[in-house]
Specification:
The complex is a heterodimer of chains A (about 290) and B (about 900).
Chain A: H1 4-15, H2 28-31, E1 37-53, H3 65-68, E2 75-83, E3 86-91, H4 108-125, E4 129-132, H5 143-155, E5 177-182, H6 189-200, E6 204-211, H7 213-217, E7 224-227, E8 234-237, H8 240-265, E9 268-273, H9 278-288
Parallel strand pairs in A: 3-4, 3-5, 5-6, 6-9
Antiparallel strand pairs in A: 1-2, 7-8
Chain B: E1 2-4, E2 7-9, H1 20-30, E3 36-39, H2 43-46, H3 61-78, E4 81-83, E5 95-99, H4 109-125, E6 130-134, H5 148-154, H6 167-175, E7 182-186, H7 195-203, E8 208-211, E9 218-220, E10 224-226, E11 229-236, E12 243-252, E13 258-268, E14 274-279, H8 283-286, E15 289-294, E16 303-305, E17 313-319, H9 334-340, E18 344-347, H10 351-356, E19 361-365, H11 372-383, E20 387-391, H12 394-398, E21 419-420, E22 455-456, H13 465-468, E23 469-472, E24 478-485, E25 488-493, H14 508-516, H15 528-531, E26 535-542, E27 548-550, E28 557-558, H16 559-564, E29 574-577, E30 582-585, E31 605-606, E32 614-615, H17 617-638, H18 644-658, H19 663-676, E33 681-683, H20 688-708, E34 717-719, E35 731-735, H21 745-756, E36 760-764, H22 778-787, E37 795-797, E38 824-826, E39 850-853, H23 857-861, H24 876-899, H25 902-906, H26 909-917
Parallel strand pairs in B: 5-6, 5-7, 7-8, 8-31, 17-18, 17-19, 19-20, 20-25, 33-34, 33-35, 35-36, 36-39
Antiparallel strand pairs in B: 1-2, 2-4, 4-32, 9-11, 10-11, 11-14, 12-13, 12-15, 15-16, 21-22, 23-24, 24-25, 26-27, 26-28, 26-29, 29-30, 37-38
Classes of the chains: A alpha/beta (about 290), B alpha/beta (about 900).
């Protein structure tokens, strides 16, 4: 199992060349907390925004006397309104994620964790608050939170788990952002339920389907018994090669279904293969979580 | 042994196992290939999919066939199949192998020896004592029985003899044998007298088996010369169908190289053993022929050496008196022409023309005086072995030639006037000839009584006259005198060449005398009577394989033996030289006929073919293994485990095992890479770090050269001195490490060749920071050991006007990572002087073969892949300056290698322009 420190350093190395990620924050009022990101309007914050003439109703202590001394009118110094967004990560930890079709590729789980933590690093660098879905690790910011995240991601699910994972929809703050990383090969009903719940709470997010190249290519032939990673499902065939076409058909159907679900909930969907560069996936995540301007 | 065609089995019962194969077929067919268990998360998507076809639960027929074949190969292989198993020849007890060993054996001697070897091996297996006897080289008596292995060891030294066995001796030897033994007779296939007696004698002691070769035997009779044509007769032993043989005549061409001069085709008619062919050749060509042979027949019998009987001497006839036209019988040359025409080629013309043709003999009939030029030319010709034959006559008698002193072209001094006897105005009778003395070349010729001499020129008496007289008249006056000049001789007949002064030209003696003088050639081989009492020395001898060898120091043979013409151990066939001519003794006598040996029906006759026993077990088992390996691949493929990268790797491995590694192609590719561009090279030291630095250094230098000069080198190459060709590289960088292995002798030879061919080696001891050059760092000592066998000229530290200081950049320092001035190059010649007004001395030509220093240049040049310097040099900007100078030194060095002393020559440009302007 990956050491937490190693996982974190790998994730930071991956995140290093990217500019700070600016998360979109639509309904600031609900989850407002001061962060580093100016909202291009006067508000609470540290950065200077503008001087405006003092209006009736402004408290006397709000007047900037240094500026006012240079003219006859009184001025109030306004700061830029800065806010932080909460992002909730869900990384599928089911047995199916431990699959790797080739010794050269890492498992889907490892890739998903790496991406998740890299996104967390980027978000935290941008001042966002990041937490895990569920109640265990609510969104917070800071190096300590990053450390906790790394630990939680590596420690999580050491034992036997379910064959296929179901998204955790609890503990999502209203109007926050969410990132679901999974292979989405199991039953889609929990995913639908989670997305419905998220849509109810105004949570926007990203579905990233992480697949192994073997799952995409189905390079099998001959008499074969396929078993799920946990062994709960099994299918025997005499000519695996014959099944390839129909399997791929089903897979693309699954992808289309996921994309539909995401679109309906206002989410983004993307499929990522462990054989490809993680950087590309991170870049896409960066764009998907970029604010709309 | 169980035989199946030409294949035998050592364990035939195992073949019963083949019956089990059909059973196995049924068993194997019922078992489907085992399924593969795969963990696959995508199984969720597979649920509910069913197979379209369900037939592959049985093994496919071709896989079964493969396995059956493999199994069959195993069964048959263990049954011990043997191709061409040797039938054990029965018999025990002593064995005699009688080999004819004549010239007729020579054409397939190696096959004969193979057969004999096989027989000996077999006899050795049976522990039979063997006696090996050549009928042409019979043992003294009895049979030399030895172990078969001992004979086998001596087999390669056995050669056939170029003669045939003496029937009497062979019969006597066969008759004297004792004891019981079987006989293997390796016959040469030629019928000979006495063979039946020998066969009967051998059969009395045991079984006789005859081995003979089916190849035809050809032979060639000696060439005969008749009516200007060479008659050749080819013989063959078996008179079967029509056949053609090519006869070729070989001899020395004018350059002294032996080559084929002519060829002819002889056609044998069906049923005939003799094919004749006539050859007409120009005399010049004919005289050059040394032997005839049957093309493609490697045997002494197929070679006919030629001797003088084929040669015709070229005789030039010159008469002093040509004014009496029409009086043919009085012409001084008439009798000479009649005597010589049948046996010699006559040449007419002026003396100066004739001498160009280099005749054997020049006859001057009554010619008194020659011009000084002609005389000198004739003397030259005489010195080289010509024969000048002069006849007296009225002109000679009237002239004052050789009166006062001896002329070089006259054997004796002559008295004025000559004499006339028996005429109307003189006393006495015409003189007869005195019998010839023993020392005379005419000795032995009968003197006919009718020869009369009525007039002659007289020789001046002198101390040497008696020695020079070779024929005299009855009263003792010299008739023929002779003097040796150099290798040639001058002979004077003191009478005319026509019948004016004597009747000698009318007699048969005249012709014989001319023959004896070797003016004309004797028409045929000398008879036994003529050869009696003479001794002949072999000059060349024939081997049984028809090759002519120098006779060496073989003793001479008596003429009688030669006349008998029966070649034998004492009389090997070849070319024999006598006093004045040479006689060829050929294997085949003139009247010889060849017949194939016929053996009685009771004698088994076998061929020479040795069928090699070949055990097939290994091959079959190998085939079985190969089939099983195929089966493994096929099974993997069937069960889908042979896919993707792994399958590719397996296929590649299989391909790699099957294809031979094409080392040569690699070498070629490397040579192309090294020669299509200028390539800098470094010597591999065995220290990986040093080698890497050297490669990086040369890479850096190559880049700098590319940027700054018109030299555009390719990627540097590492050179292994032991295995790689050095000639491709103009420049070798050789970092010296303390523990470097010394190159081998072959590598040193290569290095010296490289240095002599204009290559340059930069030796770098890399120790300039700790040691001055040669002052005892380990690298310095190693360099001394390495350089010991190298061909290195005297060295000196780089002088300030060395061409290296200005081939591209003007330099006076040659730093690398260290900045020592101790850099040594080939010393300037001691006489190099600086000319007044010239900035440089005119130094040595060419390139210095070595540059030796310790500045660790490669480290200063070294760059990594992205072009950044690897090692720091010095400190700060001064260090970068030093690196720059190091690069400049490298560029200068490569320029020096590539352009030589071009910059040195440039120094003279002003002077040259100055001179051209005038």
């Amino acid at each position: 199992m990956t050491h937490p420190a190693a996982l974190r350093s790998a994730a930071e190395a991956l995140a290093a060349p990217l500019p700070p990620l600016l998360a979109e924050a639509e309904h600031l009022a609900a989850t407002v907390l001061l962060g580093e990101h100016g909202r291009r309007r006067a508000g609470m914050g540290d950065e200077f925004w503008q001087y405006r003439p003092a209006m009736p109703g402004d408290e006397a202590r709000m007047i900037d006397w240094r500026r006012s001394g240079r003219s006859d009118a009184h001025f109030v110094r306004e700061k830029e309104w800065q806010a932080a967004q909460s992002v909730v990560l869900w990384v599928d930890d089911a047995q199916s994620m431990r699959f790797s079709g080739d010794a050269k590729h890492e498992t889907k789980r490892a890739r998903a964790r790496l991406l998740a933590l890299a996104v967390a690093v980027l978000l935290m660098r941008a001042g966002e608050r990041v937490g895990l879905a569920g109640l265990a690790l609510p969104p917070r910011t800071g190096a300590l939170q990053l450390l906790r995240l790394a630990e939680a991601l590596t420690a999580e699910g050491e034992g036997e788990g379910a064959d296929y994972g179901a998204p955790e929809a609890r503990g999502m703050l209203p109007h926050s952002r969410a990132l679901f990383l999974s292979d989405f090969l199991g039953d889609l009903t929990p995913v639908e339920a989670a997305l419905a719940k998220a849509a109810d709470r105004g949570v926007k997010g990203v579905l990233l389907q992480v697949l192994d190249p073997a799952e995409e290519l189905f390079p099998f032939d001959g008499r074969t018994i396929f078993e799920s990673m946990g062994g709960s499902l099994r299918h025997e065939t005499l000519k695996a090669g014959e099944l390839r076409g129909r399997y791929l058909e089903r897979l693309s159907g699954r992808k289309a279904r996921l994309a539909d679900l995401a679109r309906m909930a206002g989410w983004h969907y993307q499929c990522h293969h462990t054989g490809d560069s993680a950087q590309a996936a991170l870049l896409w995540l960066f764009r998907a979580l970029e604010p709309l301007r | 042994m169980f035989m199946l065609g030409s294949i035998g089995f050592t364990a035939p019962w195992l073949l019963l196992g083949l019956i089990a194969l059909p059973v196995l077929w049924l068993l194997l067919r019922a078992v489907p290939p085992a399924p593969v268990r795969r963990r696959f998360p995508g199984v969720a998507l597979l649920l509910g999919l069913s197979d379209d076809e369900t037939q592959t639960d049985k093994t496919p027929w071709w896989l079964l066939l493969l396995r059956m074949l493999a199994l069959a190969a195993v069964i048959v292989g263990f049954a011990g199949p043997v191709l061409n198993p040797q039938q054990q020849r029965g018999g025990s007890g002593p064995l005699l192998v009688l080999i004819d060993g004549t010239w007729a054996d020579a054409r397939d001697w190696p096959r004969r020896m193979d057969r004999v070897g096989a027989l000996l091996e077999e006899a050795g297996r049976g522990s039979r004592p063997v006696a090996l006897v050549l009928s042409t080289d019979l043992p003294e008596s009895g049979l030399p029985f030895q172990a078969a292995e001992a004979w086998a060891a001596r087999l390669p030294g056995l050669t056939p003899r170029p003669w045939e066995p003496d029937p009497a001796a062979l019969a006597a030897w066969a008759g004297g044998l004792e004891g019981r033994f079987d006989t293997f007779w390796m016959s040469d296939g030629v019928a000979r007298a006495g063979r039946d007696e020998v066969l009967a004698a051998l059969e009395a002691h045991g079984a006789v088996t005859v081995f003979k070769s089916p190849r035809p035997i050809y032979a060639l009779r000696p060439a005969a010369f008749e009516d200007g044509r060479i008659k050749l007769a080819a013989l063959r032993a078996d008179r079967g169908l029509a056949a053609e043989v090519t006869l070729s005549a070989a001899g020395l061409d004018p350059n002294g190289v032996e080559r084929e001069l002519a060829r002819a085709t002889a056609e044998f008619v069906t049923g005939e053993g003799l094919a004749e062919v006539e050859l007409v050749l120009p005399p010049e060509l004919r005289n050059r022929i040394t032997r005839f042979s049957v093309a493609g027949s490697r045997s002494a019998g197929a070679v006919a050496l030629t001797d003088d009987s084929l040669k015709r001497r070229e005789v030039a006839l010159i008469a002093g008196r040509e004014d009496r036209e029409g009086l043919e019988l009085l012409s001084p040359l008439h009798y000479l022409q009649r005597a010589l025409a049948p046996t010699a080629d006559l040449i007419d013309g002026t003396l100066s023309d004739i001498l160009l043709a280099n005749p054997d003999v020049i006859v001057l009939a009554d010619v008194a005086k020659l011009t000084p030029d002609e005389e000198a030319a004739v003397l030259d010709w005489l010195e080289q072995g010509g024969l000048l034959l002069r006849f007296a006559g009225p002109r000679l008698a009237a002239s004052d030639v050789a009166r006062a002193e001896e002329e070089p072209l006259m054997p004796v001094r002559l008295r004025a006037g000559g004499r006339s006897v028996g005429g109307t105005m003189s006393w006495g009778e015409p003189k007869e000839l005195r019998p010839f003395d023993e020392g005379s070349p005419f000795y032995g010729l009968p003197v006919p009584g009718e020869v009369r001499v009525s007039a002659q020129v007289m020789a001046q008496p002198g101390p040497e006259l008696a020695g020079r007289t070779i024929a005299a008249l009855a009263d003792g006056t010299p008739l023929v005198t002779r003097k040796r000049v150099g290798q040639g001789q001058v002979v004077l007949f003191h009478v005319t060449a026509n019948a004016e002064w004597s009747t000698l030209p009318l007699s048969g003696l005249f012709v014989q005398m001319l023959e004896r003088l070797a003016v004309s050639t004797r028409p045929a081989r000398p008879g036994a009577a003529e050869l009696t009492g003479t001794t002949w020395v072999p000059e060349q001898v024939l081997t049984a394989f028809g090759e002519v060898e120098d006779a060496g120091t073989l003793p001479g043979v008596a003429g009688e033996d030669l006349a008998a013409a029966r070649p034998g151990p004492e009389l090997p066939p070849g070319l024999y030289a006598g006093e004045d001519r040479r006689i060829a003794l050929n294997v085949i006598a003139a009247g010889r006929e060849l017949r194939a040996a016929a053996w009685p029906a009771r004698i088994p006759v076998e061929g020479l073919i040795v069928a090699r026993e070949t055990a097939l077990k290994g091959a079959l088992l190998l085939a079985a293994l190969g089939l099983l390996a195929l089966d493994v691949l096929a099974s993997l493929w069937l069960s889908g485990r042979l896919r993707g990268a792994r399958g590719g790797a397996v296929a590649l491995l299989a391909l790699g095992l099957m294809l031979p590694q094409d080392v040569r192609a690699q070498d070629d590719a490397r040579a192309l890479a090294a020669t299509s561009e200028v390539v800098l090279a470094h010597v591999l030291t065995g220290d990986a770090r040093v080698d890497d630095i050297a490669a990086a250094g040369l890479r850096g230098l190559s880049k700098k050269l590319y940027q700054r000069t018109s030299v555009e080198p390719g990627a540097p190459i590492a050179v292994n001195l032991e295995t790689d060709q050095l000639a491709f590289f103009p420049f070798l960088y050789w970092p010296v490490t303390a523990d470097q292995p010394l190159p081998s002798d072959a590598a040193y030879a290569k290095l010296n060749r490289y240095l002599r061919g204009g290559g340059l080696i930069l030796f770098d001891t890399r120790d300039a920071d700790v040691a001055g050059f040669g002052s005892g760092s380990p690298e310095g000592r190693r360099l001394q050991q390495i350089a010991q066998p190298l061909d290195i000229p005297p060295l000196e530290p780089i002088p300030s006007d060395h061409v290296l200081t200005r081939t591209f950049y003007l330099l006076q320092d040659f730093p690398g990572r260290h900045a020592s001035r101790d850099v040594w190059v080939e010393a300037a010649p001691p006489d190099a002087e600086q000319v007044e007004g010239m900035p440089f001395r005119n130094l040595n030509d060419g390139v210095t073969p070595v540059v030796i220093g310790g500045n660790d240049w490669a480290a200063a040049w070294a760059v990594d892949e992205s072009g950044a310097a690897i090692f720091p040099v010095g400190r700060g900007y001064a260090g970068e300056r030093q690196r720059e100078i190091a690069f400049r030194f490298g560029i200068n060095l490569v320029m020096h290698v590539l352009t030589g002393n071009y910059k040195s020559d440039q120094v003279h440009v002003p002077a040259l322009l100055d001179r051209l302007g005038q």
